[in-house]
Structure formats: structure tokens, C-alpha cells
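HUMAN: Would you supply a protein with C-alpha cells?

ASSISTANT:
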Amino acid sequence: MMRLLVLAGENVDLAAIQSAIRLGEVEIVVSRDGGSAGTTHSRYGFAGWILDTTTRELTDPAGRHVYLTSSEFALLMVFVRHPGEALPRATLTSALRGRQCRYFDRSVDTLVARLRKKIDANAGSRLIRSARGIGYVFCAAVSNSPPTPGAAAA
């Protein structure tokens, strides 16, 4: 979910906002108090993993933190918000880059491969499945209220 915080006089990236609107992933928070509105703490759980959207940390089932690049984090966010959906490459590219996908643009495939190396290392099966001719599907069930990272390792 893209959170758009509107403050007086600030510029926004319209391409990124348009992309997020197409995916239905925009929450607009208007603040007159300098930005303290909308500071909710969100976490997602899947297959023993915990993704904290506030601290941008990913914790594996053993309780270890896994480093994600900004692009890997953004891709994982799209997947956890659309579990079980076949997401076309063009949709993923648009959500990540705020631009349209060219037919031969395979940057999303490279990014998915990097993310798979990190999250599939401890999983018994692939959490991100290729959907031939379409794109990718995030196969794990996603919870919006996972246990705390310390409790996940117990």
C-alpha cells in the first residue's frame, strides 16, 4: 500500500501515484499537523516469515533479519497484498517503477529471482510461482496479524 501524505507545498511523484491507483494500493492521508497522521504499524506474516512495513524489516522463520533492497521490498509488498493472484509482469513493472513495461523488459524477472533466493532458501516449496505467459503468483497464505518476531522463533 502506498501511503500518500499530503503536506502544504510538497511535490509528489504522479507516475508512482497513478500506478498505485491502478492497483488499488493508495491510502491518502491529509495532515495539517506536520505529518504525524497515518503512522500505523503494519505487519504481514506468510509461511513463518514476518514483513514489517514500518521498519521495512523481513524476519525469517528462525527470527533472523533478512536484508532487502528497496526494489525487493517493494516487490514483496505487491505480492503480500495480492496473494494467490497471477500478477502480470507489466503490472509488477508499473507498480515498481511507475512506468509501462516494454515487451522485452525482463528486469522484473531478475528482481523476482533475487527475492526468491532470499525467501525460498528456508522454504520447502517456492513461495513465488511463475505463471507461464502471464507473470508470477505469490503462493503463501498471508496474515495481517502475525506473531511478534521473537514469538515466531519459539
